[in-house]
Amino acid sequence: MKPIISPSLLSANFGNLTDDLNMINRSEADWLHIDIMDGVFVPNISFGFPVLKHVARLTKKPLDVHLMIVQPEKFIPEVKALGTHIMNVHYEACPHLHRVVQQIREAGMQPAVTINPATPVAMLKDIIKDIYMVLLMSVNPGFGGQKFIEHTLEKVAETRELIERTGSKALIEVDGGVNLTTGAQLVAAGADALVAGNAVFGSPNPEETIRALKQL
Fold this sequence. Notes:
By secondary structure, the chain is an alpha/beta fold. It has helices spanning 17-26, 49-58, 76-81, 97-106, 152-166, 180-189, 198-201, 206-214, and strands at residues 4-7, 32-37, 63-68, 86-90, 110-115, 133-137, 171-175, 193-196.
């Protein structure tokens, strides 16, 4: 099966966002990945819902929304209002993770859980059967353009083993430092979905890069 490709809006040209979104619409991308940062959970701020309302109107791709924020459950209605397909929250930001996952599903979205590079895969054991997807961060969240953390390949394999052992149907997505080289390694290790930012938007031919990632 071909990998799911989710280009990251964080790396787009915000001075000419319509053109970049039209490119994504034309491309073989499956989803559009949106990182929402609050400057508290991660040391950066990205964009808020007024901007994302315009993005949601312009894109034809399902939205893969990743909340790198504290108390993400407070924004379930706003995320839902965008027409979001997947709402992704951090394990580290949710002390009552099962409740948040239930609230996301009850709102009509697919729940996903992210873990940071230093969080062990074993922490997902009690939630893995309840979620649509796991997102493994392969850089420390907050900034684009970081170097891929090689240990992520082992974490993908561990996550795949956990999914198979528990009978979970969860997908495995990876975000951070993904390009054609690391993407191929991740797919070989068992990843289902790849988030790519700089590799796509920094490419001389972004549509061709998305096509190449899709063929991994």
